[in-house]
């Protein structure tokens, strides 16, 4: 399997609505003859249909732009970053954070920290969605009338991919980056991304710490020595509250034996 590369971050990517606004469709009912506005969750009217439609997610921005020679960007990353696809919502949910783990054919893991938030749909993109949700001019006008004076929101994800499970520092970086994007900043967002991806070093194994700051918050990176078990990045009290002793023992047995969970 070999040693993972000596860099803190492999990729920073943004996953959002595919520029072509492509609906996710079902292949069973219409087959090749299905109309472009069809969706398996479609309800009675075009307005309900618009809210129930799911659209394709894709990588809309990334840094660096070219794959590393030793680690390619996983082609399925957009599907896992937004596993439910994208659907328009009348409200703006709070941001959520989660982690996705990719495993290569050689057994090497790539950890993907994801911050999912929602942004307001532009009129241009909303119009494309309306055309795909309603089969005719009358239905499209019905949707436009329903949406007059209203806002719709669509999910988008900021992702950090690394060979090292620094969940908390990645979460704080993504959280601060999202906060900076909502306010005026002296520096462009790209400068913060470049600093984190290319300039913050990977701490050596042992007692040496690496500290850096973003938006006035100081974050610390540290790796355990080679002869010690790495510390847990997240709290374990939730695990013991949700599982009984027997299931906890089975879970840790599977982890120690590198079995499937």
Please explain how this structure is put together.
The longest helix has 15 residues, at 167-181. The protein has helices at 46-52, 77-81, 123-133, 137-147, 167-181, 189-199, 237-242, 245-256, and strands at 11-17, 57-63, 96-103, 109-120, 153-162, 209-214, 217-222. Helix 1 (46-52) packs across helix 3. 22% of the residues are buried. It is built from eight helices and seven strands, in the order E-H-E-H-E-E-H-H-E-H-H-E-E-H-H.
- Mean residue pLDDT: 85
Largest sheet: 5 strands, antiparallel
Major β-sheet strand ordering: 2-1-5-4-3
The CA-CA distance between the termini, in Å, is 21 Å
Structural class call reads: alpha+beta
Order of helical and strand elements: EHEHEEHHEHHEEHH
Rg: 22 Å
* Residues in helices, as a percent range: 25-40%
Describe the protein's topology.
Blueprint: E1 11-17, H1 46-52, E2 57-63, H2 77-81, E3 96-103, E4 109-120, H3 123-133, H4 137-147, E5 153-162, H5 167-181, H6 189-199, E6 209-214, E7 217-222, H7 237-242, H8 245-256
What would you say about this model in short?
This protein is of the alpha+beta class and 261 residues long. 30% of the residues lie in helices and 21% in strands.
Features:
five-stranded antiparallel sheet; 261 residues; alpha+beta
